[in-house]
């Protein structure tokens, strides 16, 4: 399997309620990128997914639900609530050298959750544009971010190669800038730990006044 394949758990964000109202839940959303019908155990796959099977068994299975077959269009729909023909992202993914992104006039899900009083955090893959700072995830509604900005990465070195010159560069970032000290730390383990840290570090006593 290529180290640049995107078929991994790559997108995770937490939306924590800042209010003390018990009726407002905390939200944890996990997206598995490019996940096929036969890539999960309970569909008869050779790939064993006992944890996902257990979650599905105790939850709701959307067995007749469809998304776009590639990354950026699907992510743009999730984050904006708009079909990709209305954001210009219907044709393909956003390539590393491409000056494109989710339009800035499209509020993101994170923006809307913040308006409702949530703190927002993202771990994993962005892939919705980064050619200007205004398109970065921490400028699009997320309080914190840790992950890579393009469509795939080397799972150990956290590098990406340009599409045409194949020049390698570091693609691991947080809201402070490039992260240079995680080489050799396997991405699945790294992102898992970062996600756990986000949950554990949430200040449950923090209250924010929300104007509705």
UniProtKB/TrEMBL annotation:
Sulfatase N-terminal domain ranges (all copies): 25-206
Listed SUPFAM superfamilies: Alkaline phosphatase-like
Pfam families: Sulfatase
Coiled-coil annotated residue ranges, if any: none
Entry cofactors: Ca(2+)
Family matches, as PROSITE patterns: SULFATASE_2 (PS00149)
N-terminal signal peptide: 1-21
Record key words, sorted: Calcium, Glycoprotein, Hydrolase, Metal-binding, Signal
InterPro entries noted in UniProt: Alkaline_phosphatase_core_sf, ARSB, Sulfatase_CS, Sulfatase_N
GO molecular function: metal ion binding; sulfuric ester hydrolase activity
Keyword Glycoprotein part of the UniProt annotation: yes
Family: Belongs to the sulfatase family.
Protein name per its UniProtKB record: Arylsulfatase b
Organism of origin: Plakobranchus ocellatus
Lineage of the species this protein comes from: Eukaryota, Metazoa, Spiralia, Lophotrochozoa, Mollusca
């Amino acid at each position: 399997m290529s180290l640049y394949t995107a078929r991994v758990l790559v997108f995770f964000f937490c939306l924590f309620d800042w209010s003390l109202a018990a009726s407002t839940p905390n939200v944890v959303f996990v997206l598995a990128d490019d996940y096929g019908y036969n890539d999960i155990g309970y569909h008869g796959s050779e790939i064993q997914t006992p944890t996902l099977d257990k979650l599905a068994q105790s939850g709701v299975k959307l067995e007749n639900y469809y998304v776009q077959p590639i990354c950026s269009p699907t992510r743009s729909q999730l984050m904006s609530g708009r079909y990709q023909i209305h954001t210009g992202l219907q044709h393909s993914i956003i390539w590393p050298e491409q000056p494109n992104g989710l339009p800035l006039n499209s509020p993101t899900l994170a923006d809307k959750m913040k308006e409702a009083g949530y703190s927002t955090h993202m771990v994993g893959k962005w892939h919705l544009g980064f050619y200007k700072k205004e398109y970065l995830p921490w400028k699009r509604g997320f309080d914190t971010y840790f992950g890579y900005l393009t469509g795939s990465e080397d799972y150990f070195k956290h590098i990406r190669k340009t599409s045409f010159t194949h020049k390698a560069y570091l693609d691991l970032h947080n809201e402070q800038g490039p992260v240079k000290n995680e080489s050799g730390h396997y991405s699945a383990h790294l992102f898992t730990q970062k996600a756990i840290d986000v949950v554990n570090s949430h200040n449950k006593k923090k209250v924010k006044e929300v104007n509705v």
